[in-house]
């Protein structure tokens, strides 16, 4: 595909410079001129899609708990950093629309909730970005979640998220109807990158935090870089 989205994306909203997966992070990324953000979405115990990376709350809030067992009324009382709360996906999506930001939405299901998470995130994304020129790309390490997202909202683009690109990557991408491969840049080789691009897929790399690596990947033809180093690899770096 011809990549129509921003080429540099702020990881978890604000990279390493703001509390991850919060509305403050999204605002901060936008304040630096980023036109695209990445964030993670999981289901709370009551089925509310929320922004959080881990299945537990301890790392980001200092309070022990399992996201999939806690209702949002409890999650929103936790401090996700600098007084920020864990936001609902709905609030994050509405903020992105107001700020004119494109979103790479990573479906991050808790174990055992893959299908429900994929369906819920896809349906809410369709509602939030209805009529948008650039709808979000839904990505996930969970093939079950991506398949569920495809079944629920087939028209939204999907990215196959992997650590190292497997030999059968194209068969997997075709089965799920993906438009892009999202991979760990440290495990990507130039021949594999060329293979993906030659097959007509877009290529996104994470998490690229140093300028030489970013330039090398750009020379390979990589379409999009996700970064934590927002002041090193800015929105117009490429």
Structural class, from helix and strand content?
alpha/beta
List unreliable stretches of 5+ residues. Answer: none
Q: So how many helices?
A: 9
Tell me the Rg in angstroms. 17 Å
Strand order of the largest sheet: 1-9-8-7-6-5-4-2-3
What's the end-to-end separation, in Å?
19 Å
Q: What's the number of extended β-strand segments?
A: 9
Keywords:
single chain; 238 residues; alpha/beta; nine-stranded mixed beta sheet; 9 helices
Question: What can you see in these coordinates?
Answer:
Strands 1-9-8-7-6-5-4-2-3 form a nine-stranded mixed β-sheet. It has helices at residues 23-31, 58-61, 72-75, 89-99, 114-128, 143-152, 169-176, 190-198, 211-220; strands at 8-10, 36-43, 49-51, 102-107, 137-140, 158-161, 180-184, 202-206, 224-227. Helix 5 packs across helix 6. The protein has 238 residues and is α/β, with parallel strands linked by helices. Helices cover 34% and strands 18% of the residues.
């Amino acid at each position: 595909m011809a990549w129509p989205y921003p080429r540099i994306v702020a990881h978890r909203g604000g990279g390493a410079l703001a509390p991850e997966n919060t509305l403050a992070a999204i605002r901060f990324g936008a304040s630096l001129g980023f036109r695209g953000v990445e964030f993670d979405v999981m289901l709370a115990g009551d089925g509310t899609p929320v922004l959080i990376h881990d299945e537990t709350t301890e790392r980001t809030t200092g309070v022990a708990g399992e996201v999939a067992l806690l209702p949002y009324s409890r999650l929103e009382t936790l401090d996700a950093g600098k007084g920020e709360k864990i936001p609902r996906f709905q609030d994050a999506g509405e903020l992105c629309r107001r700020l004119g930001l494109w979103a790479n939405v990573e479906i991050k299901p808790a174990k055992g909730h893959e299908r429900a998470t994929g369906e819920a995130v896809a349906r809410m994304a369709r509602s939030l970005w209805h009529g948008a020129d650039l709808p979000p790309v839904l990505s996930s390490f969970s093939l079950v979640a991506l398949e569920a997202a495809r079944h629920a909202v087939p028209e939204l683009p999907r990215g196959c998220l992997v650590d190292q690109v497997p030999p059968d990557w194209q068969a997997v991408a075709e089965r799920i109807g993906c438009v892009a491969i999202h991979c760990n840049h440290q495990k990507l080789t130039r021949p594999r990158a060329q293979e993906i691009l030659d097959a007509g897929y877009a290529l996104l790399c994470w998490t690229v935090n140093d300028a030489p690596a970013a330039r090398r990947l750009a020379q390979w033809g990589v379409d999009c870089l996700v970064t934590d180093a927002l002041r090193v690899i800015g929105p117009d770096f490429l």
